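Final report, closing paragraph on structural work. Over the funding period we assembled a curated collection of sequence-structure pairs, and we close with a single example.
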Amino acid sequence: MDEARRKIVRISAAAALGVALALACLPLGVFPKLACALLDAGCPVTGEPSGRLPQVTRLTPVQVAQSGRYVALGDSYSSGEGVWDSDEPPVNDGADRCHRSPGSYAPLVARTYRFARGTAFYACSGATTRQLLTGQWGHPPQITRVDGGASLVTLSIGGNDAGFTEVLTGCIVKLPWSSACVDQEAAVNRRIGELQANMMTVLKELRVRAPHARVIVLGYPRPFPAQPSQTVDNLSAADQRWLNAVTRRLNDAVKSVVSEFDRTIAAFGGPGSAEYVDAYEAFTGHEVGRPQPYLNGLNVDMEEMTVNARSYHPTGDGYRRFAELITRQITQGPGRPMNNYHVTTP
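Its predicted structure, as stored:
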């Protein structure tokens, strides 16, 4: 009640003051001063505001990548199969079964950047998209290594889904004059088609576990020269061209899924990204059969008559080339602004 009376008094005073000033023809500058003194209204603001809003800064691609943990997943092209040495101490638990090697690109990337929450390296040789989610050799699934603290995830995946090892073996062991290599076309195309749905499942699961992370998917290199001229490991020039084409189709299938997923993230203004690194031409001039190849050729243990798992996997130079591609992608980003922000409270 008292507050209501005070309002009435103030309003009456303001009306009376206005009439008096109008009749007295006082200068206009006097009214605000009197209003401030009598009514506590229209007084000038002095000093700093009583409070400030938080400062919001958009992060760069590198800042996003380094803000948490780097998790390296994937198949043999990520684990380091081509340089794995059974005599070396395992890099972590289960590394001996998964053939994880310090010579892979993941440890090289980890040494290039300082990640706020460290690095986790769990790529496993032979992994398919399904095994990425379900596990191998009795180990926890690779996907479980990813959580909300992850800021960067790298992986190569899909080659085993397409049955590339079996396809390559079928090409190598065929009779020289047979068409057994290219006769695998229909089966390969079917498997690559099925891969796309599984690849989308992997990306969705990564997104659920690490919604702010950058996910970088590495493609596969062309194994043979673009225009082969000689037979290599019982593979004719025609066989080599066909295997190159299979690699291209595999890469295109993975790239299309990754690109579509990132467009969806961007359309909703979401944090994080899904990025594809095209490695198809990465080993140009250093393919199998060249003087300094970045891929191991066929390696057969003549005593045991077995094919060494290093066959047709990157050499040390090949993994260093992969590391260059990944580090460049980390710097360049997805080709669009990142929607990750840092908030500074005053």
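Residues 295 and 314 are 4 Å apart (CA to CA). The chain has two domains: 2-39, 57-334. We thank the funder for supporting this effort.
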